[in-house]
Amino acid sequence: MDTQRIIVLGGGYTGIVAAGRLARQVRADEASVTLITAHPTRDERMRWHELAAGGRYPLLSIADALAGSPVALEIGRVERIDLDGHAVQLADGRSEHYDRLVVALGSVIDFGAVPGAREHAHGLTDVESVRAAAATLGALPDGAPVTVIGGGLTGIELATEIAESHPRLAVTIVGSREPGHWLSDPARRYLARAFERLGIAHRVGRVARITGDAVVLADGAQVPSALTFWAGGFRANPIVAASGLEADELGRAHVDATFRSLSHPDVWVIGDAARVPGPDGVPLKMGCRTGAFMAFAAPHTIAQQLSGAPAEPFAGRYFAECISLGRGDALLQWLTADGAPTDRILTGRAARVVKEYIHRGNLFVARHPGPYGPHRRAHVRTGGRRQTIGA
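The chain above was modelled as a monomer; its predicted structure follows.
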């Protein structure tokens, strides 16, 4: 019997955990699991706002995280996915064949169509670009204006981190709506006090264009800016839609509640790259608030389908989102199952401890993905029949 090759694409939190858990739920003599990722260390995207402000944190070695597991690791940047040929093309010219594919390529910064955004704004796109922005930030003279475009989670965390780490600079956050507009009233009031404490100004208006020294709004107003950061939104890694997988307007692959592609049944997509139906039919939002749960649920679901057994649908829901407001402050907003904010919040150092616990918990799970309890290892179905070897 030929061993089925399962390839997992993406070395972020979702990809590492999914690969580790999946490899423990299929028989090694029936299927192998290979993780392909562009970098030997895991991207700590949840900490990139720290890095952009000049902070440092340890990077997780993916090889160390997978040590002792059945997962094979290959370092290489994915150039494209050949769905018809069942192959992944890498930038160095290698072609890796797969029998089953799990895509966890995540999301990228969406610069949109704003003139000058790509040329004059720094996006948190990868570790190298974030470090370059941090170096530029550190070299600015006292009083220099810094503008963060985007009032979502990334924009808020970036603006507060820069303001706290560089109080000599004048930080302004710009967005089409008030920063944190989706939060509850108590949470918005707390956020406003944090902005006041850190000296962060904010402007509401649609950005029309960006120049080398200003952000120009649709009403003609100009916000002076010696350094501009773009945090205006995300979209799925463009490789997903370019591969031919059926995708939505954000480039997320259409999948069912078991993460299986609606257009290509030998492909599963998880994390930010997937358009996963939520409890009310509305697709789940991008981010760790949902991706972390997919990383745990997807391997079991995929293993069930590989064995030909009925798969348990993912019962996605929301719990909370935690927003860093500098090193010593944070805001935890509790959510309903469908993602609506409640009036229940946690703030200050207590919320900061929760945020740090989430970071460290992610590192622990990446190193020890489980499962830990007794479980039945799946038998991979090949050629329409179930191959059964051993117990």
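The longest strand covers residues 31-37.
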